[in-house]
Amino acid sequence: MEMIKNQKSKIKNCGFTLIELIVALGVFMVVMTITLSAFLNIMDIQKKTEAFRKVNDNLNFAMEAMMREIREGKGYSAADCSGADFCFTGKDGKAVKYQLNAGGNIERKEASSEWLRMTSDGIKITRLSFLVSGEETYASGDRRQPLVVISIGGESGEKEKLKSKLDLQATVSQRKLDSQ
Prior knowledge:
This protein is α+β, with helices and mostly antiparallel strands and 180 residues long. The protein has helices at 2-13, 18-72, and strands at residues 74-77, 86-89, 95-100, 106-110, 116-117, 123-133, 147-156, 164-173. It has one domain (9-173). Strands 1-2-3-4-5 form a five-stranded antiparallel sheet, with helices on one face. The radius of gyration is 32 Å and the shape is rod-shaped.
């Protein structure tokens, strides 16, 4: 008889109770929720980093291209252009113009050719400005080498939470002496 009681108590102790299963399932769900939350945060950080890289690459490319061409050019004039436009004469003697179009892209135009976009899709340029100083010739008496301060602001990303914004500013001086 005693052996039967021992067998019944062994059988009784072999399984899990309903409460134990509910507690284990609850702990598992909490761990999975935390893990999923961390995974989704990592994905958001990756998207934000990609958006920043994209805006950084585009703005740096546009800034470097403009700086190189402006440095080699001459005849800088803010008076000939309006707003965010900038006009000058390139090193080959052709008129060059930069502008911010209505779609939020930087465009370049040389002489009578068509406008060429300098920034890619997915990047919105929010600000483009050119500040020209010393634009009068050295011979006219201002004795200042022409300088152009370029300011660009842009953003990238679909959702407001994941947008990356970047502002760049650079000063470019005319390479060729104004007196030449």
